[in-house]
Amino acid sequence: MAKIYETVIGLEVHVELATRTKIFCGCSTAFGGRPNSHTCPVCTGMPGTLPVLNRKVLEYAVAVGLAANCSITRYCKFDRKNYFYPDNPQNYQISQLYLPVCRDGYVEIDTKAESEGGMPGKKRIGIHEIHMEEDAGKLIHDEEEDCTLIDYNRSGVPLIEIVSEPDMRSAEEVIAFLEKLRLMIQYLGASDCKMQEGSMRVDVNLSVRERGTDRFGTRTEMKNLNSFRSVARAIERERERQTDLLESGGTVVQETRRWDEAKEISFPMRSKEDAQDYRYFPDPDLPPVSIDDGFLEEIRSRQPELRTEKMERYKSEFDIPDYDIEIITGSKHMADLFEATVALGVPPKKVSNWLMGETLRLLKEKELDPDDIRFSPENLAKLIALTERKAINSTVAKAVFEKLFDKDVDPEQYVEEHGLKMVDDREALRKAVEKVIAANPQSVEDYRGGKERAVGYLVGQTMRAMKGKADPVTVNGLLKELLH
């Protein structure tokens, strides 16, 4: 009888925090910039320099811990993780091993039947710990010059590392967990979690074991995963590789593997280190961190409404479909835009229609994310008001919205400057309709002969004559009135 294998997955998620300055110095954390321009003696590891903890890093770490249902370590400290690599200027990384700031939490995900072995439902993914640490620099491998360059701009950028329990059993569960985690952190404002910019990085620890046994198999760690798609593909490939190895009588080696996105394969990088290999010891330059009741209550009082709570409120407060709610709250930026526009007095369904329709269409066309939306709620409200009072028709509104989407133009000013307001002179409109009727006797005959669709052509000709500045419904009504 063939063995049935079960996949066991735990994650290490590194999140770059949204502070303006680095974790232990005053250098900028801005993405990009000329190489080695955001550096100082502290973050380049010069002898005699002393690190000073950025309070905002602690605030963000505790906020994420509270949102992830963690216990907050009231007395925590920093340790030195020793390893030697060119992107690590001190030859050690300041991290937290013995007393991490957050422990023993969980994130609840929605599961599918195939990943639960039964009915769809909820599943808690345990959070082993969340700790603060500094990032390393970046190595740039120049193939033309056959050399490696080092950019220390990222060195000292503040991170939290979220270490899950090995509670996930499929790629679907992993992606559900990561999506929930990313949205939670974005709603907190702790990070933008842009994987393409490296502000959220995922390492996957994976092993397989025979179903029914409690003993874990030998795990590997997968690195270089820069998108959710990469994470899912890497999990599937590694599960298959380990299963094939065991089936053929081989042995899985504990190692770190690098994922090649182009080839969709992984290859060994090095043997997987354990904690003792890093020779951790308490950092002698940083005092322990003591978190009192006042600090904890301050952070707790500032916790924002997270997505799950927001979805429930939208269902009770706004008359919009559940699908709209799911899409809008799937981006904090879009949810903020929606609420700000509604707060200006625009009916929620009208705002939702523009976000779900034209906004999503343009995002897809331009290959952008909802976080890339740059138009203001004030200008969206103005555009909706113009359409509601029939100052412009729907065709013009869509054209103006494209300008709004690209450059956040003032719709009222744009419509005025480009002469796009609808003609509300009924007599002028009647004359235009009469001319169209006179110029198109065949269409008139077709309509009077029972071909209802013929009137559509006449509407189009009238709209062309009016340069699009007429209400098609009004034009349609006038045509039918004059043709009878």
Automatic annotation (TrEMBL):
Gene Ontology BP terms: glutaminyl-tRNAGln biosynthesis via transamidation; translation
Superkingdom, taxonomy of origin: Bacteria
Annotated PROSITE patterns: GATB
Protein's UniProt keywords contain Transcription: no
GO molecular function: asparaginyl-tRNA synthase (glutamine-hydrolyzing) activity; ATP binding; glutaminyl-tRNA synthase (glutamine-hydrolyzing) activity; transferase activity
Keywords: ATP-binding, Ligase, Nucleotide-binding, Protein biosynthesis, Transferase
The protein's Enzyme Commission number: 6.3.5.-
Catalytic class of the enzyme: ligase
Substrates-to-products reaction catalysed: L-glutamyl-tRNA(Gln) + L-glutamine + ATP + H2O = L-glutaminyl-tRNA(Gln) + L-glutamate + ADP + phosphate + H(+); L-aspartyl-tRNA(Asn) + L-glutamine + ATP + H2O = L-asparaginyl-tRNA(Asn) + L-glutamate + ADP + phosphate + 2 H(+)
Protein's UniProt keywords contain DNA repair: no
InterPro entries reported for this sequence: Asn/Gln-tRNA_amidoTrfase_suB/E, Asn/Gln-tRNA_Trfase_suB/E_cat, Asn/Gln_amidotransferase, Asn/Gln_tRNA_amidoTrase-B-like, GatB, GatB_C_1, GatB_Yqey_C_2, Gln-tRNA_amidoTrfase_suB_CS
UniProt domain Asn/Gln amidotransferase: residue ranges: 336-483
Family: Belongs to the GatB/GatE family. GatB subfamily.
Function (record text): Allows the formation of correctly charged Asn-tRNA(Asn) or Gln-tRNA(Gln) through the transamidation of misacylated Asp-tRNA(Asn) or Glu-tRNA(Gln) in organisms which lack either or both of asparaginyl-tRNA or glutaminyl-tRNA synthetases. The reaction takes place in the presence of glutamine and ATP through an activated phospho-Asp-tRNA(Asn) or phospho-Glu-tRNA(Gln).
Cited HAMAP family: GatB (MF_00121)
Subunit composition and interactions: Heterotrimer of A, B and C subunits.
Name of this protein: Aspartyl/glutamyl-tRNA(Asn/Gln) amidotransferase subunit B
Organism: Acetatifactor muris
